Amino acid sequence: MTDELEEIRREKLNELRGRDESDSTDESESGNLSDPVSIDGKAELSDITTDHDVVLVDFYADWCGPCQMLEPVVETVAAETAATVAKIDVDANQELAAEYGVRGVPTLLLFADGEPVERLVGMQDEAQLRSVIAEYA
């Protein structure tokens, strides 16, 4: 029984390694950002909103419970939609948060063609985010 379990573990590990390698190859070839990008400052935000057509910006705080609940949704949206997803820690970027009128977290801003076009405050479900992104993608 122990030998069988070890064999299954080895097979699964090899399968996961192979999948991980093919995923990283696909990403580097396409140049698509499938993971959220951390933004630290106005210049970085400007660069990302200029370089990409549709950008969903997640203003969050590490101590925020709803932000933590929203994180897997944001990661899924980053991986499965045409939008580039950026994350901004409001504690580390208070001036940037103030500039965009972020008064509570989580706040999501959608940028299209470099301009903010939508604002979503509070916990959002995946379908809502996909719908908003689809309007501008």
Topology:
Layout: H1 2-30, E1 37-38, H2 42-51, E2 54-60, H3 65-80, E3 84-89, H4 94-99, E4 107-112, E5 115-121, H5 126-136
Parallel strand pairs: 1-3, 2-3
Antiparallel strand pairs: 2-4, 4-5
Description:
With 137 residues, the chain is an alpha/beta fold. It has a single domain, classed as Glutaredoxin. It is built from 5 helices and 5 strands, in the order αβαβαβαββα.
The portion of residues forming beta strands comes to: 15-25%
The total of helices stands at 5
Order of helices and strands: HEHEHEHEEH
Query: Radius of gyration, Cα only, in angstroms?
Result: 18 Å
Low-confidence stretches: 24-32
Annotated CATH topology:
Glutaredoxin
Mean pLDDT: 87
- The CATH architecture term is 3-Layer(aba) Sandwich
Order of neighbouring strands in the sheet with most strands: 1-3-2-4-5
Helix content: 40-55%
InterPro entries: Thioredoxin, Thioredoxin-like_sf, Thioredoxin_CS, Thioredoxin_domain
GO molecular function, one term: protein-disulfide reductase activity
Pfam family, one: Thioredoxin
GO cellular component, one term: cytoplasm
